[in-house]
Amino acid sequence: MNTEILNTIRQIREVISELQTELNNSHSAQEKQLLEKALNNLFAQENILLNEILQAMVDKVNAANGELKSLVAEMEQSAKKIAELSGKIKKISNVIGTLVEITSKAIGAGII
Amino acid sequence: MNIYLRVFLMCHFSLLSGCSVLTQNQVKNINTFAVSAKKYIDFPGEVLKKRAELHLNNELLEASQFSNPVEINRKVMDARNHYKSAIRLSDKFDLSIKLLQKYSVLLAALSAGKYEKELDASTKSLGNSLTEAVELYNASVPDKLPAVIGKQISGIVLLAGSRITKAKQAKALKRYIPAGDMLVQNTIQNLTEVLDSDSFAGANGITFPGLKALLQLEYDNYLANYKNIMFSDTLGISHGSMITYNAGLDTFEKVEMLRKKSVEGARKLLRAHQKLLAEIKSRKNIKELIKETQDLMADVQELNKLLNTFVNKS
Questions:
Q1: Are B51 and B86 in contact (CB under 8 A)?
Q2: Mean pLDDT across the stretch B198-222?
Q3: Chain A 24-63, CB below 8 Å of chain B: which residues?
C-alpha cells in the first residue's frame, strides 16, 4: 500500500528525473544553474520527508520503552535483593564456621 | 533440646516443601531467549545505517551531474547533514532492542545457579570446620558424636539457603515474564511492522512507508540516477563506472538480505518469549513433579538423619 508521504516522494522523484534529463541537454551556464538550483530544492524537500519517515519509525519502535524501562528497573531491584539474601545466608554460614573454629581451638587448648 | 530441635527441623521441612523452584525446561527457555536477544542486538539499527549510506551514495551521484560550484557544494552539504541525522536516528532505533536485551540478561541472572554455587563453597568450608571440631570433641569425651555431623549441619545451611534463594528467583521470574510479555510483544510487533510492512501507522495516525518500501525507493532512485546521469553520457561509460554500478547493486541485495534476517530474528525472539511464557505458566508435568519431589524427599531424608543423630545422642 502506498502512503501519502511515499506518493509525494515519488512525485518529487518524477520531476527530479525530468530535470536530470533536461540538464544533460545543452543549455547556457545560467540555465544550468537554474536547473541545478531547482534540483537541489527538490532534493532538500525529499530529505525533509525522509527524515519525517525515519523519525516516525524510531517513535513507533520505541513506543513501549517507558514501560519496559520501569520493568527492567524493578527486575534489577529484585536481582539485587536476591543477591543480598544469598549473601546473608553465606555470612551466617561463615559466622557459624568461625564460631566452630574458635570452639575447636578452645577444646584443643583444654579451655572447654 | 530434642523438642526444640524437632521444631527447628520441622520448620525447615515446611519451609522447604513450600518452595517452588524452576524446572530445567524453564531455565533452558530463559537462556534460549537471553542468547537470542543478545545475538539480535545490532541488526535493526544496522539496516537503517546501511540505508543512510545508500542514500548518501545516491546523493553524491546526483551532485556529480552538477557543474555550478555553489550548487555542488550545497548538494554535498545537504547530503552530509541528512546522513548525520539518519545515523543519529539509527542509534535511537536500537533503544528498544537494547532494553529487550537488558530484560533478557536480567531474566538469565534471575534464573542463574551462581548463588547456589557460592553457598556450596561457603558451606563446604563450614563442614570442614565442624568435622575438625567433632574430631576434637570426640577425642576428649567418651560419648562420641558421629563423625559426619559436621557435613550434615553444613548441608542444612546449604539446603535451606539454596532452596529459599531458588524459590525467590522462581517467584520473581513468574511475576516478571508475564508482565514483560505484553511489552516484548508490542515492541517486536512494532519493529516487524516498521521493518517488513509496506506501511505503518505513526503515533499521530499518519501512515508512513515501512523500511522495505524505503529501500525499494532508494533502489529505484539508484537505477534512475545511473540512467539519467552516467548512462546518458555521450562519451560512453567507463569500465570502472560499471564496476561501481555493479558493486552498488550488490550492496542493495545485501541490505535487503539484512532487513529480511532482522525480521526473521525479531520473530524468533518473539517466539522464544512466547515459549518461555507458556513454560512458566504451564503446570509442571509428572516427570518434573517426580524430580522435584525426589529432590525434596532427599532433602528431608538428610534432615531426618540429622534429627536421629541428635535424638539418639541426647
A1: yes
A2: 93
A3: 24, 29, 32-33, 36-37, 39-40, 43-44, 47, 50-63
Report the gap between the CA of B253 and the closest CA in chain A (Å): 21
Q: Which of A71, A86, A100 sits opposite B129 (nearest CB)?
A: A100
Q: How far is B261 from chain A (nearest CA, A)?
A: 17
- Give the mean model confidence (pLDDT) for residues A64-83: 89
**C-alpha to C-alpha distance for B131 and A101, rounded to whole angstroms:** 10
Angle, CA of A69, A70 and A73, to the nearest 5°: 85
CA distance B33 to B38: 9
pLDDT (tens digit per residue) in B124-169: 666 676 677 667 767 766 666 666 666 666 667 767 777 777 788 8
Nearest to B109 among A17, A24, A79 (CB): A79
* Environment class of B240 (CB within 10 Å of its CB; exposed 0-12, middle 13-18, buried 19+): exposed
Count the residues in chain B.
Answer: 314
DSSP B222-247: HHHHIIIIITT-TT---HHHHHHHHH
pLDDT, tens digit, for every residue of B268-278?
A: 888 888 888 88
**Residue B14's pLDDT is what?**
52
Helix/strand/coil for B250: helix
What is this structure's pTM?
0.75
Enter the ipTM.
0.78
CB contact under 8 A, B118 and A71: no
Q: How many CB atoms lie within 10 A of CB A81?
A: 12
% residues pLDDT > 70 (chain B): 70
Bigger pLDDT: B42 vs B210: B210
Nearest to B279 by CA among B1, B33, B3, B4: B33
User: What does the pLDDT read at residue B94?
Assistant: 83
Give the DSSP H or E segment for A109: none
H or E, element range at A56: helix A29-61
B161 CB within 8 Å of a chain A CB: yes
